[in-house]
Amino acid sequence: MDPRVLDAMLPYLVNCYGNPHSRTHAYGWESEAAVEKARKQTADLIGADYREIIFTSGATESNNIAIKGVARFYKAKKKHVITSQTEHKCVLDSCRMLETEGFEVTYLPVKTNGLIDLKQLEETIRPDTGLVSIMTVNNEIGVKQPVDEIGRICHAKKVFFHTDAAQAVGKIPLDVNKMKIDLMSISGHKIYGPKDVA
């Protein structure tokens, strides 16, 4: 962890240990203020509204909640999910789990340069497609997918777009509104923060 982050967190690890959800005493208020400050800083980093930020134990949990949550919520009418063959294992595992629940998942191949084919994505979206999940930057080969275009395509077709941006946040400009991203997963330890916070 970056020493600057440790210095900022140290009071909350040693003295200010109140539960941020306990709003009936000063310890809780102090912790709640710290969490809300972090929430606003995170939102500013990705161009989101601070009320849209949900902290989890890590990017794996965030990806699971985003993918399974949207898919299961719209299951009655939208039983098709699209992802790519080169996604992080936790995304692929979530999609495989959905297949056992009756969802159909299309795993888009990538071209020799590691990018998905945008035309193929557009042609693969069907009336029953509920979610597209494509990572922003690949964790193994470093390829940056054209998330602006993916977001535009999904928005035009009224399909939710999720991106795992754990490898991208803090390294390239991200704006969930401009990029038409509905759900984004990021990870604190990728941007000098503590592990187990996303």
Automatic annotation (TrEMBL):
Keywords: Iron, Iron-sulfur, Metal-binding, Pyridoxal phosphate, Transferase. Gene3D superfamilies: Type I PLP-dependent aspartate aminotransferase-like (Major domain). Residues 3-195 form the Aminotransferase class V domain. One of its GO terms (cellular component) is nucleus. The keyword Iron applies. Pfam families: Aminotran_5. Its EC number is 2.8.1.7. One of its GO terms (biological process) is iron-sulfur cluster assembly. Its cofactor is pyridoxal 5'-phosphate. SUPFAM superfamilies: PLP-dependent transferases. GO terms for molecular function: cysteine desulfurase activity; iron-sulfur cluster binding; metal ion binding. Belongs to the class-V pyridoxal-phosphate-dependent aminotransferase family. NifS/IscS subfamily. This is cysteine desulfurase. It comes from Scyliorhinus torazame (Cloudy catshark).
